[in-house]
Amino acid sequence: MIKVIIIGAGNLAFHLLKTFEKNTEIEIIQTLNRSKKEHKSNIPFTTDYSKIKDADIYIIAVSDDAIPDVSQKLIHKKGLVVHTSGSVPMAVLSKNHNHGVFYPLQTFSKETEVDFSSVPIGVEAKNKTDLELLKNLGNAVSKNVQEISSKQRKSLHLSAVLVNNFTNHLYHLGKVMCKENKVSFELLKPLISETVKKLDTTSPFDAQTGPAKRGDKSTIKIHLNQIKDENLKKIYTTLSQSISNTYGEKL
Hints:
Number of helices: 9
Oligomer: single chain
Number of domains: 3
Order of helices and strands: EHEEEHEEEHEHHHHHH
């Protein structure tokens, strides 16, 4: 059984705790966070690093800026110290004798259940023994565990921001426009679902549709005249131009 300590109180720490608690191959022996947010479980909890127990793996699930400070507090621990960030290199943990990365590639919020078995997990470690340990931890909860370097993970994280954070913001802008014009945003959900579903059988390049791909200047002009918000107008223009450039159309 892999003995784990989870450090942090954010969305990822919350879901790791819930997922690991259910797994017979993993034992969470303690949780720690400085915000004093104790999880609703029987697992021992502390805010004091001097009282942290010995474990096989210490998972640092905190903000990127806080990782160096937290790792410094674990410098005398013999267990494997890992962070969960997509953009922070493994080298930030170099002062910890055994160190690595355990990166679940998914969006997490406490209000939404996550099926961890479908979450891709990228792992990286200083040596083969630690890498195998991380793979075992990942395989206990996920069907998709891959060794990914810091450089690859950095690019993957940027790609995730593009396809997740940016598209979600576009959903928000679309919902605002619907509300302003007294149209239900629910009408767009089948379209959103179908767009994502297409990616199971079609590349994003081949799945692209719309006026910018067609070079439909008239429709684009009508849309720009509809948009009153200057920020949204810039977004529409920039994305339309990018699509046009991708498919060789001239707007």
